[in-house]
């Protein structure tokens, strides 16, 4: 567990270093940033960075399809992700709390559940159904483009293993 926590902290720090320049270059922040209210669908890469220690548990590289639908009245969004490998995919519905950091960018934390289409086959986020927590950032660039990146943690996401699965995603989306 200590090793997993250390891995999550290292990945979170790395994601912050990678995403911070995008957020800081999005424009000067006012006293009360508005964030982005973009609804979007996007695609990118997904990299599993942990393994469960058993056959079929290896860290897996793949892709992601990710989307967001915002609410007008609260800083809450409904999100959906599909993390896929060459063998199967994990479908992850989530709810997130969004924190504006500039007029075009948000940080978010979320929780959901990962449904693996074929249990036992590797995805970037483990090989079985599991609860998921996520932390990420998104920034609107121009009129219709959104870039995003996040880290997802699947709790007990490996068959026959107590290990936690961690996956890092990045991509670009089209605002609708």
Describe this structure as you would to a colleague.
By secondary structure, the chain is mainly beta. 13% of the residues lie in helices and 49% in strands. The protein contains one helix and eight strands, in the order αββββββββ. It has one helix at residues 2-24, and strands at residues 40-48, 61-70, 76-84, 89-102, 105-116, 130-141, 145-154, 165-175. It has an eight-stranded antiparallel β-barrel with strand order 1-2-3-4-5-6-7-8. β2 (61-70) and β3 form a beta hairpin. The chain is elongated. The termini are far apart.
Distance between the termini: 41 Å
Query: Based on CA inertia axes, which overall geometry fits?
Result: elongated
Query: Approximately how much beta-strand content do the residues carry?
Result: over 45%
Order of helices and strands: HEEEEEEEE
Reported for the largest beta sheet, the result is: 8 strands, antiparallel, barrel
What portion of residues is helical?
A: 10-25%
**What is the CA-atom radius of gyration, in angstroms?**
16 Å
Average per-residue pLDDT, rounded, comes to: 86
Low-confidence sequence ranges? none
User: Which secondary-structure class do the elements indicate?
Assistant: mainly beta
List the helices and strands and how they pair.
Layout: H1 2-24, E1 40-48, E2 61-70, E3 76-84, E4 89-102, E5 105-116, E6 130-141, E7 145-154, E8 165-175
Antiparallel strand pairs: 1-2, 1-8, 2-3, 3-4, 4-5, 5-6, 6-7, 7-8
